[in-house]
Design goal:
Strand order of the largest sheet: 1-2-3-4-5-6-7-8
Order of helices and strands: EHEHEHEHHEHHHEHHEHEH
Structural class: alpha/beta
Number of strands: 8
CATH architecture: Alpha-Beta Barrel
Strand content: 5-15%
Number of domains: 1
Radius of gyration: 17 Å
CATH superfamily: Aldolase class I
Largest sheet: 8 strands, parallel, barrel
Bound molecules: 1,3-dihydroxyacetonephosphate
CATH topology: TIM Barrel
Number of helices: 12
Length: 255
């Protein structure tokens, strides 16, 4: 069985002391929640301080981006070699990076490969824009993004990867996809994985939904058999709402 994951993408929020305080609050409320993986993805500069907390908590840690090169003249960038030992996961190809920072499918693939080479598990984000959605292009957009991101990866590498389906129109809008639609698209992602790498690999990959998830809708979303977790933005910045989502998920999975 795939272990459910509640992943908090903190985006460009929280100073180092604020990040430590939030992580402590979350731990106080959510505990170690054996059955649910709690992944915190703070800004880069907070990773070190949160890593120190993982000795007493059961958080997994993730970065929000990385470069694909090991090192070099790339001012302002962070390489997977630098993240090794500090981050268990790295979010790659978030729509904000694709839209605001010009990240291409090709670079998403480079980053995924580089992360895996350093034993950091990519959380690859895919999702259609409102315009693509309205034109009925959701399926083809997801298909292109998933195939491009995973191009050249082995079945074992794909099994270490997490895919997050985040429709752009649902991010930060308060308008989540319905659980049924989210489940259907996550099922399509799994069908693509099956075609690329076979049944066993596809069954092992965790697929998350992201976009306006909160305590009110997480139950319905997590009841969808093809959805293995959530990539949470706003609701992950408040300890109470994040911990509540962990609790609801744990209950559903009988943890
Ligand atoms: P919201 O949960 O704030 O809609 O953000 C989703 C997201 O982008 C997570 O990566």
């Amino acid at each position: 069985m795939r272990k459910p994951m509640m992943a908090g993408n903190w985006k460009m929020n929280k100073t180092v002391p604020e990040a430590v305080a939030l992580a402590r609050q979350i731990h106080a409320l959510a505990g170690s929640s054996e059955g649910v993986e709690q992944l915190l993805c703070p800004p880069f500069i907070c990773l070190h301080a949160l890593k120190a907390l993982t000795e007493e908590t059961s958080f997994s840690l993730g970065a929000q981006n990385c470069h694909w090169e090991e090192s070099g003249a790339y001012t302002g960038e962070i390489s997977p070699a630098m993240l090794r030992g500090l981050a268990d996961y790295v979010i790659i190809g978030h729509s904000e990076r694709r839209q605001l920072f010009g990240e291409s499918d090709e670079n998403v693939n480079r980053k995924a490969r580089a992360a895996l080479a350093h034993e950091i598990r990519p959380v690859v984000c895919v999702g259609e824009s409102l315009e693509q959605n309205e034109r009925g292009q959701t399926g083809e957009t997801i298909n292109r993004q998933v195939r491009a991101a995973l191009d050249g990866l082995s079945g074992a590498q794909v099994q270490s990867t997490i895919i997050a389906y985040e429709p752009i129109w649902a991010i930060g809008t308060g308008r989540a996809a319905t659980a049924g639609t989210a489940g259907e698209i996550c099922g399509q992602v799994r069908a693509i994985l099956r075609e690329m790498h076979g049944e066993a690999a596809a069954d092992a990959v965790r697929i998350l939904y992201g976009g306006s998830t909160k305590p009110d809708n997480i139950g319905a979303i997590m009841r969808e058999p093809q959805i293995d977790g959530a990539l949470i933005g706003g609701a992950a910045l408040e300890a109470e709402s994040y911990a509540e989502m962990v609790r609801i998920t744990g209950e559903l999975y009988g943890a």
